[in-house]
Design a protein that fits this description.
Strand content: 15-25%
CATH architecture of the largest domain: 3-Layer(aba) Sandwich
Distance between the termini: 46 Å
CATH class of the largest domain: Alpha Beta
Largest sheet: 6 strands, mixed
CATH topology of the largest domain: Rossmann fold
Low-confidence stretches: 507-525
CATH superfamily of the largest domain: P-loop containing nucleotide triphosphate hydrolases
Radius of gyration: 29 Å
Number of domains: 4
Helix content: 40-55%
Number of strands: 18
Oligomer: single chain
Strand order of the largest sheet: 5-6-7-3-8-9
Mean pLDDT: 85
Shape: globular
Number of helices: 20
Length: 595
C-alpha cells in the first residue's frame, strides 16, 4: 500500500501544554483508522495540522502527490435559501443527476433534497455534507466526532457508507461502537505520543490494560528481588568472609530497574443518589398529545413506566423525543390528555434547557451547596465536585465562565447530591468524555430509582436500558423487544432501502430485461429447497447462540488476560456469524412469503 500522509518527529505546544512530543505516524491508502484520546489531548489540533490549517513547532508533514482530502467541517457551508441539491451542485460542480444519485445513498430525497437546506436538522445537514464530500472523490476522509448529535438512523447510514467507502479514513470519535463498526486500525494520542495499533479499538484497549497489569506484576517481582538483595548486602558487606558476595549482589541490584507505568489521568467517579426502592407505576400518560399550539408532534399516547425501570426513549431526530420529556416534566404543557406521576416522586432533570440556565454568578461550590439535600456537608459537596473533575480552585469558579461541558458536569453533580428518585436525562453523554459516560453508566446501574433517558450512544443504551419507548411517525409506544432488537429493525430498514436503490440502478442499465428475467427465475426456485435451507439455518442459529452464551460465561469468569482476549475475539466472531445467519433466515422467510 502506498503512503498518503506521514508525520515525522512532530512537536506542538500550546503554552505549557505539550500536545505532540517528537512523535510520528503514517497513514496508508485504503486504511480506515479510528483516532482516540482524552478530551484536550490534541486530536483536533493534529487534524488541523494534517490539513495544513496549523503549523508544527518542529517536525514535518509529508503529503503524497495524489492526496485528495475530504474533511467534515463543523461550520455551516450553506447559502441562505438554497436547497440541498443546489448546495451539492454548487460545492462539487457536478450535474443534478449525479448529485441526486450520491444524495440517495444518505436517504436525501423529496423535501430533504429540494427544500431549504438551512431548515434541516443537524443530522440531515451532516448527511448533506457527507454527500458533498463523496462528490469530490477524496482518497482520504477526515472526520472529527462525526456522530455528535446524530440520531441512530444517521449513525448507521454513516457506518454503512464508511464500510464500503473505497478509500482511507481517519476518524476522531469517543463512540467505541461506531469505531468498531468502521475502523480496522486504531491511533491513540496520549501524553504527546502517537501509537498506531493494527487492530480494532476493543483489542487495543484490552492490550493497553494487559500491558499495564504485566508491568505492575513485573515491578512487584523486581521490588521483591531488590529488597531481598538489599537485605543480603546490608547483612554481609561488613564481613570479611562474605564481602565479595555482597559486592556481587550489589552489581545485581544495580542492574535491576523498574518499568515506567503511566499514572492514570483523573477520571470521574460518579455515585447515584441513595433512594428507597419503590414498587408500582411511576408514570402514566393517558391519551396524551404533545407538541405546540400550531403543531401536534404525537397524539394518543398511552404509556406506563414502573418504578426502578430504566426506559430509553428512542427515535429519529425531529420525531419528538425531547418534546415528550419536556411534557412529562411539565416544562411544556400537553396539547391534550394527562401526565400522572406516582405518589412521592421526586423528579430531577438533566437537559440542555436546564444546564444552560444555571445561575451565572454562583460558584461551583455555592451551586452544589444550594442543590444538596439537607444535612449535606461542605466536604460532601467538594467530594462530589471532585468526582466530576472540579478540583482545587475550580470549585470557586463562577458558573458564567464554565464551558458547556463543565456546566453539563455541574448540573449532573447537582442531581447526584439530591434525593431524586426519578431521573430524567436528555442526552446525558453530550459534553461528557467517554470515561465520565462509563462512570455514569455504572452509577445508573446501581441506582434504585427510575430513569427515563434519551441517548444516541448505543453502548450506553445497551448497558443500562431495561425497556424501550419508541417515538415515530406521530406515535409513542412501548417497544416489544430489547434494544438489540430495535437496532436490528433499524438496520434492516436501511439495508432494504439500499437494496432497492441498487435494484433501481440495475434496472436502469441496457441489460435491464435480462436482469429482471434472472431475478424472476431466482424468485421461483423450488420451495422445498428454500425450506431445507431454513431448517439448516435454524440449526446453525441455535448452535451459534449456544456457543456465544458459553463463551460469554467463560469470559465473565476468567482472570487470565490472554485467555480473555482470545475469548473476546471468539465471541465477536460468533456474534458476526449469528447476525449473518439470522439475516439470511429473514430473507428466506420473505421469499417463502411467511413474513
Amino acid at each position: 500500500m502506498s503512503v498518503l500522509l506521514q508525520l515525522n518527529d512532530a512537536v506542538k505546544s500550546y503554552g505549557d501544554q505539550l500536545l505532540l512530543d517528537s512523535t510520528s505516524m503514517t497513514l496508508y491508502e485504503d486504511t480506515k483508522v479510528g483516532f482516540i484520546g482524552r478530551n484536550g489531548a490534541g486530536k483536533s489540533t493534529l487534524l488541523r495540522i494534517l490539513l495544513g490549517d496549523e503549523e508544527l513547532d518542529s517536525g514535518e508533514v509529508v503529503r503524497a502527490a495524489n492526496l485528495r482530502v475530504g474533511y467534515l467541517r463543523q461550520h455551516d457551508p450553506f447559502v441562505p435559501g438554497e436547497s440541498a441539491l443546489e448546495f451539492l451542485m454548487r460545492d462539487s460542480g457536478q450535474p443534478d443527476w449525479k448529485c441526486g444519485e450520491v444524495a440517495a445513498e444518505f436517504e436525501l430525497k423529496g423535501d430533504y433534497l429540494n427544500g431549504p437546506v438551512n431548515g434541516l436538522s443537524g443530522g440531515w445537514q451532516t448527511r448533506v455534507k457527507l454527500a458533498a464530500l463523496l462528490l469530490h472523490d477524496p482518497n482520504l476522509l477526515m472526520l472529527d466526532e462525526p456522530t455528535n448529535f446524530l440520531d441512530l438512523r444517521t449513525q448507521i447510514l454513516l457506518e454503512h457508507f464508511l464500510r464500503t467507502f473505497p478509500a482511507a479514513c481517519l476518524i476522531v470519535s469517543h463512540d467505541r461502537e461506531f469505531l468498531t463498526a468502521t475502523c480496522e486500525q486504531t491511533l491513540d494520542l496520549r501524553r504527546g505520543k502517537l501509537t498506531m495499533f493494527s487492530g480494532k479499538i476493543g483489542a487495543y484497549l484490552l492490550q493497553v490494560e494487559e500491558e499495564k497489569v504485566r508491568a505492575e506484576r513485573t515491578n512487584a517481582a523486581v521490588l521483591a528481588k531488590q529488597k531481598q538483595l538489599q537485605r543480603f548486602i546490608d547483612k554481609n558487606r561488613a564481613r570479611a568472609t562474605s564481602a565479595s558476595q555482597a559486592r556481587s549482589k550489589q552489581k545485581q541490584l544495580d542492574r535491576l530497574t523498574l518499568e515506567e507505568i503511566e499514572v492514570d489521568l483523573p477520571t470521574a467517579s460518579i455515585r447515584a443518589p441513595l433512594v428507597e426502592p419503590r414498587q408500582g407505576p411511576a408514570l402514566r400518560c393517558l391519551d396524551l398529545s404533545i407538541g405546540y399550539p400550531d403543531h401536534t408532534v404525537a397524539s394518543g399516547i398511552e404509556l406506563e413506566v414502573e418504578h426502578q425501570q430504566r426506559a430509553a426513549i428512542v427515535g429519529d431526530n425531529g420525531m419528538g423525543k425531547t418534546t415528550l420529556l419536556r411534557t412529562i416534566v411539565d416544562s411544556l404543557k400537553p396539547v391534550a390528555g394527562k401526565v400522572k406521576w406516582g405518589h412521592g416522586c421526586e423528579i430531577g432533570v438533566y437537559a440542555q434547557h436546564v444546564y444552560t440556565s444555571l445561575p451565572p454568578e454562583q460558584t461551583v461550590l455555592e451551586y452544589l451547596e444550594y442543590k444538596a439535600r439537607p444535612g449535606t456537608t461542605t466536604q460532601d459537596c467538594l467530594a462530589c465536585a471532585g468526582s466530576l473533575l472540579f478540583r482545587g480552585g475550580h470549585t470557586n469558579k463562577p458558573v458564567r465562565v464554565l464551558s458547556g461541558g463543565e456546566r453539563a458536569r455541574l448540573c449532573m453533580a447537582g442531581l447526584l447530591l439530591g434525593t431524586y428518585n426519578i431521573l430524567i436525562l436528555d442526552e446525558p453523554g453530550n459534553h461528557l468524555d467517554v470515561e465520565t459516560v462509563e462512570s455514569l453508566a455504572e452509577a445508573l446501574l446501581a441506582y434504585r430509582g427510575t430513569v427515563l433517558f434519551t441517548s444516541h450512544d448505543r453502548h450506553f443504551v445497551r448497558r443500562i436500558a431495561t425497556s424501550i419507548i419508541e417515538v415515530r411517525d406521530g406515535r409513542v409506544r412501548n417497544y416489544s423487544g430489547d434494544y438489540d432488537a430495535y437496532l436490528y429493525s433499524v438496520n434492516k430498514e436501511i439495508e432494504e432501502g439500499e437494496r432497492e436503490r441498487a435494484s433501481g440502478k440495475r434496472m436502469s442499465t441496457p441489460h435491464a430485461a435480462k436482469v429482471q428475467k434472472a431475478e424472476k427465475a431466482a424468485s421461483n426456485r423450488d420451495q422445498h429447497q428454500i425450506r431445507k435451507q431454513v431448517r439448516n439455518l435454524e440449526k446453525t442459529i441455535a448452535r451459534l447462540d449456544e456457543a456465544k452464551k458459553s463463551l460469554n460465561a467463560r469470559l465473565l469468569e476468567t482472570t487470565d488476560q490472554k485467555l480473555a482476549l482470545d475469548l473476546h475475539n471468539q465471541v465477536q466472531t460468533a456474534a458476526a456469524e449469528l447476525t449473518e445467519a439470522e439475516a439470511r433466515w429473514c430473507e428466506l422467510q420473505e421469499e417463502l412469503g411467511e413474513w
